[in-house]
């Protein structure tokens, strides 16, 4: 149980976007500086660090050296972690467990991703990064395509016509675009309408351009200490209530799965609720930062984390349940959809938003007095994934 | 008696309207040909088409695999052995490529016949397949069709192979050196008068004479069409009547090279009665004529029914005749690790996964630990011949495809097991969850740097019967 053992005392996050001006080093320094300033500490105070990057091949290269040499970290242990799009949560897990164990007192988790040097849209081509055997047997798959299959199946399973299904998904994106318009650090800040989404070019049927998140450059960082030390640094530290990761054993793709949910999310959420002593998430959670790499992912995640009933999340969407002024605001910062998705940074960017909201520092998008926030960070494909579900709170006990 | 056990024909789904070629490159007006021709999809070649034909006619094992084609994808790496591996045949099989002319198919058949007759083999699989190119707008481009056929030579379940007669000439109608992609050809009038109309007549009449047969003893005479007007003249010159000549299907399929004689034979056998005598001849560097007696029918004409149009622009792009924009993403083809391909050859080329010995659940790719029960006792299990249905799918406009959008999905196999595969021979808007599919052997990609055509299995919508 990690509940209430660790506190976040400082966070930083760069502006996300097509940062033609910035490389890995620039992004890392930008997020690191903000996190140190926010925590009121200096670089030399950091005793251990975890770096999350996913596509190291197309940016900084392997190992943790790109981070330690960029930040000039003084011979401390630095570890690079990678677990697809859930890498950011892995970095946080390393730092949180390190301080909780007493191995060190102040640890840094930082996620950095520089994607826009590939020369093409979308994530780096999977054919080259999935291993020597998979490249011979994987279909010509992309991230939007792999999640589009979730939408195809969802529509078919719940009897939604493509038109109806696409309209529900469009509402999810419209909401995130609105929230993103209020966030100065977001990659995409333009409001869109349902019609805009439906008329946009198809990327992978049934998903259009506006069903897909931004492919962005960016970095985010968190400084963690043991909970009992938090007050030394600040009064409004944010406490880790749960941090759970679930990884597919392969059964979804190869053996049994309904194709309309993500099993790792279900498993991680169940364990996280237990860890955080949450019995009724729909009543107890105040805001959500979900891994909305695609609108359909957000839709099924509402169900997978037990906020909406199976097959009925679309009704909550139609009711505006997840909008900024709804029951449980979701993606208050625009989410992956509009804040953007620099892979290694995303898990920590979600925490950044929860942290700012819980501290009441979220600016124009601030919601009213939130106490408990949840992040959901998903890596891989719906059929084969890594899911991290973390819960954060302002009070050490509640 | 020694003969043909089974025969199957593979006709690719797509057709190219010759008028499109004429309209695009119309200055060669004198070469205008009517009708259409069968064309391989962008992910097909002579090997993949041969595997598809062989999958249908092969039940069980064979002692040898002969492959006849003048469009072998590999100059070095035996093409017949790729076919044998895709068919998951035992390594004890004898394999050979027959090539150099469009009569390689009948030479392979004759060799198989003699091999079986000599008692050296019980069954020989002969695959014939071609996917020929001509210069854009040329007569050859309009005439050549793509397709494959396969026969199992062994017992005479389908037909007996009674006799054969060969003539061989170094006749340079079409030729191509080892470094050339497109053929050269000499003047049409000379080809017609000195070669085409003479060699086939010579092999057929030679066969008849030696066997003491009269034209009225023969039900059907089958031979390739190279020139529409001259085609019937050949048989007429030997003394056959017009109705004895097998329709060469030149305006619906084109001249399918090494597959052609077997396609014509299949068409003839489909409407034959037991005891009917059929002469099938090839053409190319001479001619082989084979005498066949029908015992049973084969299915053929149904295969002509399913067809889709392919535009001329797509056709020449697929054949790499014009450079096309692949985008920076499309250019990223990962280098092939040959040792990985070797280690996993049954898994990749034959689509062999595993089945748990404890709980019986089939799984692809082959698992070391059972995904259902955790047992480590697994046995090989082939998926290539299993029917499947679409669990889910997408049409992906981001992924590079020669025929965008790239279509792929998760396929559930009858009897258990599922995996994701590219889906081919279909266009956007045609698929639905639950649709039946079959697995087809196709080119996955081309690793240009290392010169490797990567083959794998794709799903194709099941053709409505």
CATH class of the largest domain in chain B: Alpha Beta
Question: Uncertain spans of chain B, ≥5 residues at pLDDT below 50?
Answer: none
* Multimerization state: heterodimer
CATH fold-level topology of the largest domain in chain A? Peroxisomal Thiolase, Chain A, domain 1
- Based on the coordinates given, report the CATH architecture of the largest domain in chain A: 3-Layer(aba) Sandwich
Structural class of chain A: alpha/beta
Strand order of the main beta sheet of chain A, please?
A: 3-2-4-7-1-8-11-10-9
Strand content of chain A is 15-25%
What's the rounded overall pLDDT mean of chain A? 97
Largest interface: A-B, 41 and 50 residues
Strand order in the sheet with the most strands of chain B? 5-4-6-7-1-8-13-12-11
Shape of chain B: globular
Q: How many separate structural domains of chain A?
A: 2
Q: Tell me about the largest β-sheet of chain B.
A: 9 strands, mixed
Instruction: Give the CATH H-level superfamily of the largest domain in chain B.
Output: Thiolase/Chalcone synthase
What's the end-to-end separation of chain B, in Å? 33 Å
């Amino acid at each position: 149980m990690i509940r209430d053992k660790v506190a976040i005392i400082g966070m930083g996050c760069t502006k996300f976007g097509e940062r033609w001006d910035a490389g890995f080093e620039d992004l890392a320094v930008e997020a690191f500086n903000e996190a140190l300033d926010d925590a009121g500490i200096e670089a030399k105070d950091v005793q251990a660090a975890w770096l999350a990057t996913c596509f190291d091949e197309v940016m900084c290269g392997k190992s943790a050296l790109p981070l330690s040499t960029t930040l000039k970290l003084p011979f401390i242990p630095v570890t690079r972690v990678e677990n697809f799009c859930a890498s950011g949560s892995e970095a946080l897990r390393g730092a949180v467990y390190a301080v909780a164990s007493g191995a060190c007192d102040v640890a840094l988790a930082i996620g950095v991703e520089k994607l826009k040097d590939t020369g093409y849209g979308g994530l780096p081509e999977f054919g080259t990064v999935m291993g020597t055997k998979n490249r011979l047997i994987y279909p010509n798959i992309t991230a939007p395509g792999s999640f589009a299959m979730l939408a195809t199946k969802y529509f078919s399973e719940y009897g939604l016509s493509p038109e109806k299904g696409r309209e529900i998904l469009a509402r999810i994106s419209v909401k995130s675009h609105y929230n993103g318009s209020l966030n100065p650090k977001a990659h995409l800040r333009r409001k869109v309408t349902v019609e805009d989404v439906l008329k946009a070019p198809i990327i992978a049927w049934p998903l259009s351009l506006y069903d897909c998140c931004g492919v962005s450059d960016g970095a985010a960082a968190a400084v963690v200490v043991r909970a009992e030390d938090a007050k030394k640094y600040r009064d409004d530290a944010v406490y880790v209530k749960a941090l759970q990761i679930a990884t597919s054993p392969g059964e979804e793709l190869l053996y049994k799965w309904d194709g309309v949910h993500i099993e790792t999310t279900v498993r991680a959420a169940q364990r996280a609720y237990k860890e955080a002593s949450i019995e009724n998430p729909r009543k107890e959670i105040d805001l959500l930062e979900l891994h909305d790499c695609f609108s359909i992912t957000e839709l099924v995640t509402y169900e997978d984390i037990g906020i909406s009933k199976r097959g009925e999340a679309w009704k909550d969407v139609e009711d505006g349940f997840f909008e900024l002024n709804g029951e449980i605001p979701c993606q208050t910062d625009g989410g992956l959809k509009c804040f953007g998705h620099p892979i290694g940074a995303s898990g920590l960017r979600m925490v950044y938003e929860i942290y700012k909201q819980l501290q009441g520092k979220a600016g124009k998008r601030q919601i009213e007095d939130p106490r408990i926030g949840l992040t959901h960070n998903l890596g891989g494909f719906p059929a084969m994934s890594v899911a991290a579900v973390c819960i954060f709170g302002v009070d050490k006990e509640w | 008696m020694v003969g043909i056990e089974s025969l199957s024909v593979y006709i690719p789904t797509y057709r190219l309207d010759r008028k499109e070629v004429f309209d695009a490159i119309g200055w060669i007006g004198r070469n205008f040909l009517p009708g259409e021709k069968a064309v391989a999809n962008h992910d097909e070649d002579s090997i993949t088409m041969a595997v598809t034909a062989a999958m249908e006619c092969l039940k069980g094992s064979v002692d040898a695999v002969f492959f006849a084609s003048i469009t072998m994808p590999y100059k070095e790496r035996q093409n017949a052995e790729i076919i044998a591996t895709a068919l998951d045949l035992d390594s004890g099989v004898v394999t050979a490529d027959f090539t150099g002319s469009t009569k390689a198919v009948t030479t392979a058949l004759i060799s198989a016949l003699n091999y079986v007759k000599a008692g050296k083999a019980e069954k020989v699989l002969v695959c014939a397949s071609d996917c020929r190119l001509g210069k854009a707008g040329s007569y050859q481009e309009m005439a050549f069709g793509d397709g494959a056929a396969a026969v199992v030579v062994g017992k005479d379940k389908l037909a007996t192979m009674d006799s054969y007669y060969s003539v061989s000439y170094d006749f340079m109608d079409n030729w191509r050196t080892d470094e050339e992609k497109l053929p050269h050809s000499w003047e049409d009038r000379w080809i017609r008068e000195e070669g085409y109309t003479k060699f086939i007549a010579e092999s057929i009449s030679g066969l008849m004479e030696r066997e003491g047969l009269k034209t009225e003893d023969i039900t059907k005479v089958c031979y390739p069409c190279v020139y529409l007007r001259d085609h019937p003249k050949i048989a007429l010159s030997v003394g056959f009547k017009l109705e004895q000549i097998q329709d060469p299907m030149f305006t619906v399929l084109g001249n399918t090279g090494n597959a052609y004689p077997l396609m014509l034979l299949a068409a003839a056998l489909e409407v034959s009665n037991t005891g009917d005598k059929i002469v099938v001849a090839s053409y190319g560097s001479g001619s082989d004529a084979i005498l066949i007696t029908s015992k049973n029918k084969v299915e053929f004409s149904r295969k002509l029914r399913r067809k889709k149009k392919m535009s001329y622009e797509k056709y020449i792009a697929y054949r790499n005749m014009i450079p096309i924009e692949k985008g920076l993403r499309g250019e990223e083809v990962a280098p092939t690790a040959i040792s990985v391909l070797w280690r996993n050859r049954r898994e990749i080329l034959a689509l062999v996964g595993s089945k748990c010995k404890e709980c019986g659940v089939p799984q692809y790719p082959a698992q070391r630990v059972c995904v259902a029960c955790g047992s480590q006792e697994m046995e090989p299990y082939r998926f290539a011949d299993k029917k499947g249905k679409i669990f889910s799918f997408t049409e992906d406009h981001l992924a590079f495809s020669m025929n965008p959008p790239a279509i792929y999905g998760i396929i559930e196999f009858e009897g258990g097991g599922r995996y994701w595969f590219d889906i081919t021979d279909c266009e956007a808007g045609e698929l639905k969850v639950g649709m039946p599919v079959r697995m087809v052997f196709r080119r996955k990609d081309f690793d240009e740097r290392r010169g490797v055509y990567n083959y794998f299995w794709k799903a194709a919508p099941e053709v409505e019967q």
